[in-house]
Amino acid sequence: MAVDGWYDAFYSTSQRMMAYVWAVMDASMVFCFLGSVGIFVYFLLILSHIISIIYGKLHLHRMPSATNIVWEELPGVTILKPLVGVDPNLKENLETFFNLNYPKYELFVCVQDEGDPAIKVVEPLIQKYPDIDAHLFIGRHARIGANPKLNNLMSGYKASKYNLILISDSSIKTTKDTLLDMVMHMTPGVGIVHQLPFTCDRKGFSCTLEKVFFGGWHSRMYLTMCAIRTNCVTGMSNLIRKSIIDENGGLEELSKYIAEDFYMGLITLNSGYKQQLSSIPVYQNSGISSLQNFRKRMIRWTQIRISTVPAIILAEPITESLALGIWNAWSVSYLLGWDPIVFFLAHILIWMLLGYIQLKIVQNDRLNFSKFDFVIAWLYREIMTPYLFMKGMMKTTVTWRNQVYKLKWGGELEEVR
Q1: Backbone dihedral region for residue 178 (phi beyond 0: left; psi -120 to 50: alpha; all else: beta)
Q2: Cα–Cα distance, 411 to 305 (Å, whole number)
Q3: Is the N end or the C end of the chain the one with fewer CB atoms within 10 Å?
Q4: Residues carrying an active site annotation
Q5: By C-alpha distance, which of 23, 3, 1 is closest to 411?
């Protein structure tokens, strides 16, 4: 059944079920049911906080021992870097990939056309590091589908000589040991190694906001899904076996989707391999940061999540702290007679404290902003999220890499010409 048809059937069935529930229950029974569900969801999310904190503490920043590594036996890796335009931090970010503590890798930098200003950044770095097997690829004529990132990468992908492929976004600033850590996690039963998205220390409120988001709400979701072995791969930095991609239709098949990272994770699981999280987060270091860009990014990500997993329309809003707090303040007031205002304020304080603990674990060092800055950034994000989610639900097109696309159910995209 087509995705659209499945969604219509699901929506119609849900309406009939709700009508039946209201017909057989009186209002008090419904209120008791809603209150009980709210409390159940609340404890599930408390459990999610605990799982992500424990998993992060035990797994992150704990690189496998390198004492017994036979460097000559380490597999070769092809690194693919898609570039479009020049970010103020592009040279700084890209140069870190020329200084990796790894014996055998090739670095393929891919741009869309000969006029891309990123070329003037890439070529001097290739000349500066002649011992690194680095090459520049022009992907203008390599259109394989609607996804512009994969179109960009196709030339480099075809030229790759190793089975391990690291796809890393242009805004990423890596550490010297990141590639080694990822390869060490690529054990025989593992098909893809991914990294927890995070940010470098940068100045400004918008940068603080990004760090609070990625180190708090996002890392809670990400680490919990890793702990329970659920597909949660993001495309910022993934090390994947090329054979898995090729056996599942290649990049041509993945290029139908806007969230190609999610489907890379999916085909890995469907091929009988496991996913593994690197112990080192992936550090975003964009030189352009603003509140407007953050809001646009959150709206676009909402659109992508909804088109890829439609159930998010119902599930995600009730997991946000404000909606969850209001729902459960009413629940405990109706069922237990507790003061709803006191409960709501206590809930906000607990959620904020758990978010701060999560952030400190991911940061693994002193934060570059004060606790007051954290509180303001946390509150800003929580207050803005319902509005941004609604904006994402109502938009029918998404702008990505200077192109406009229409999203379809199932995560497929169609270019709007």
Answers
A1: alpha
A2: 8
A3: C
A4: 261
A5: 3
